[in-house]
Amino acid sequence: MKLKKKVYLGTFVLATTILLSSCSSTNNFKDKQQVKEDPYNITLKESRTNVKINIISTTSKIADKKERHYQYTDESENNYLAGMPIILDKGKEATIKVSNKSSTTTNVHWHGLSIPNNQDGPDITLNNKGEKTFKITPKESGTFWVHSHYRPVETQVTKGMYAPIIIRTETDKKYDLDEVMMLGDIQESNEQNSTMAGMNMDDMDMSGSASITDTINGKKIASNLKIEGGQIGKLRFINASANNFKTIKFPFKVRVIAKDGYNLEQAYETQNFNIAPGQRLDVEVVLTGKESKTYTIKDGNAKVKLIYKGNDKSKAISPFIPLKADNLEKYVSDKAPDISMKLTEEMEMNGSEMKMREMINGEVFPNTETFNVKVGQVYKVQFENADKMAGMSHPMHIHGAHFQIISKNGHPTNDTTWYDTYPMDQGIKTDIAIKFDEPGVWMVHCHILNHEDNGMMTSFTAK
């Protein structure tokens, strides 16, 4: 009898092992299949509470060119040209283990997420073969991203050290198409990238430019999108370019519903929009009519086709829920700025080379002063872009908090949109209202990463 029990037990263990192995192989096959087809179509992708990110150095074909670059990928090291989508649920704690296998020192920053300061990332160094486990409980839903914050940041982000983060709720499951659109670019050299940094090309169509190759999800021509009459889609745009503004053009009207991870108080329609480095913007796509058509969405010389299958179904109803935002202007409208930051740049000689000094209040990081603030108190902060170069914009990103734009050159904006990154345009004094809910030292810097590397960075110290 004892022998039979041992035989039965051994058979059970063997069968279980084979079954689990089979399931694992099936899941790996499905993962590889999805990556091969379109890893950025997250419509049916499951959310996770345990995530493993491998940072690797690899060679891939990006925009028709073989490029040596970095990737934020999965345990199987599948080929994610614009980083592995990280899908989490609002309110559910996620354990994210980051392993650095890139052969270079780096770190990670969870851009836009409201998390404790010790999880934000810039002060946590990941040496080669180093690992770090982050515990994140998303307080908000929306479109965010993770990227290197290790200086020189420009080089690592340009070479692919980033990935999208999507925080979902049940509402997101009502979309028939949910697609991440990572916007990037390849330029002839980092020197050229740096020279053009900050030039707002909003009104210029860069299609056909020999020096710039725009990319959508790591491709010059991204995977086709598909939608039918009676359906509704969400496109989540993330400007992951190290230095360049992007202009997205549609052949039909779309509905803008969220910016920088937060739903708008009131959605609006447009046929094109501009997006600064670091920013995110979500739009809804709804098409109707019996005639099937193929449309092209453009970002410079990158494009993606949307294949519409016509029918006689009525227009889809949007699941969008407007955000009832607290207007912070009422707390600070009648007061002078509590904190002022003057943004300037100047050329200096560095040996035989010319170098730009990007400054906040006349100093470059790490010589810039920190600004002391109290947790829970609303502050009025003024950014003055005093650059002499016309068209130079500085998209300023603040870690640890979102803010509202309350006035420009003293004129109220009446804008309740929440931002974590916003372009401070040349010649404009832009007043923001901001409140920190978590203590710690929080970075503030230009998200034109060449400008950050050259000194346009400081911090808020919240206590």
Question: What is the structure about, briefly put?
Answer:
It comes from Lactococcus cremoris subsp. cremoris IBB477. Residues 78-170, 210-299, 340-461 form the Plastocyanin-like domain. The strands form five sheets. Strands 9, 10, 11, 12, 13, 14, 15, 16 and 17 form a nine-stranded mixed beta sheet that branches.
General description of the model:
This protein has 463 residues and is mainly beta. It folds into three domains: 36-168, Cupredoxins -  blue copper proteins (Immunoglobulin-like, Sandwich); 172-309, Cupredoxins -  blue copper proteins (Immunoglobulin-like, Sandwich), CATH 2.60.40; 329-462, Cupredoxins -  blue copper proteins (Immunoglobulin-like). It has five helices and 28 strands. It has helices spanning 2-37, 153-158, 190-196, 329-332, 449-453, and strands spanning 50-62, 65-73, 86-89, 94-101, 109-111, 131-136, 142-147, 162-168, 177-187, 212-216, 225-228, 233-239, 246-259, 262-275, 280-285, 293-299, 302-309, 339-350, 353-360, 370-373, 378-385, 394-398, 403-408, 411-412, 421-424, 429-435, 440-446, 457-462. The chain is globular. It starts with a helix and ends with a strand. One of its GO terms (molecular function) is oxidoreductase activity. InterPro entries: Cu-oxidase-like_N, Cu-oxidase_2nd, Cu-oxidase_C, Cu-oxidase_fam, Cu_oxidase_CS, Cu_oxidase_Cu_BS, Cupredoxin. Residues 1-26 form the signal peptide. Keywords: Metal-binding, Oxidoreductase, Plasmid, Signal.
